[in-house]
Amino acid sequence: MAVHEHPHRSSGFPLPSLRRIRTVFAAEPGAPARTGTHTAAAYAFASLRLLTGFVFLWAFLDKTFGLGYATPSGRGWIDGGSPTKGFLGSVAVGPMESAFHSWAGAPWADWLFMLGLLGIGLALVAGVALRIAALAGTAMMALMWTAEWPPARHLSDGSASMSTNPFVDYHLIYAVVLIVLAAAAAGDTLGAGRPWAGLPFVRDHSWLR
């Protein structure tokens, strides 16, 4: 038996179709979960960015003023000490050992190292220019990784290097963290990443983000 509908007859107000109702209820439970997950991830990346930025900024401050942690009091940069002489001068392994010794204490090396620490630290804390910070930080970490040269089991004098891993050390971890923070636009949360990216010059040169 066929049922003929009357196309001009109305019940007074339209009712949503059952399919539409199922679609709405199926989507609603997942939407808050996705939003919450996205928010949690954004704050996690922002927290990682701020903590990593503090690591670089603190290294700059300690080496500049000799705050008594890694740099003894009275031996800071402003006191005439060299931020690179101790570390590079003590390199005892790796293919660049002699090169690092020649760089140790050189004014250009001190300035590049300290400006790198300051620039990377400020960029991370502010959440701006993260791509530049990632590039500069990765180069710095690669040089420091080469200076410690984890693949070696023994130093130049034959003593044990005390390396615990033939490849991965904290310098590589920091480098990867910097790259991830830049890729995730971690400066947009708890930082000035969005207004920075909105600047006309930055919009025209995306590598500045």
What is the beta-strand fraction?
Answer: under 5%
- CA(first)-CA(last) distance: 68 Å
Rg over C-alpha atoms, rounded to the nearest angstrom: 28 Å
Biggest beta sheet summary:
none
Query: Which structural category do the helix and sheet elements fall into?
Result: mainly alpha
Low-confidence stretches: 1-31
The number of helical runs is 9
State mean pLDDT (0 to 100 scale): 88
- Helix percent reads 55-70%
| Mass-distribution shape | globular
Q: Write the H/E string, N to C.
A: HHHHHHHHH
Number of strands: 0
Q: Can you characterise this structure?
A:
- This protein has 209 residues and is mainly α.
- Helices cover 58% and strands 0% of the residues.
- The protein has 9 helices and no strands.
- Helix 5 packs across helix 6 and helix 6 runs antiparallel to helix 7.
Mind sketching the topology for me?
Elements (H helix, E strand, L loop, with lengths): L17 H10 L2 H36 L19 H5 L7 H7 L3 H20 L3 H19 L21 H14 L9 H5 L2 H5 L5
Helix pairs in contact: 2-5, 2-7, 5-6, 6-7
Characterize this entry briefly.
The protein is an all-alpha fold and 209 residues long.
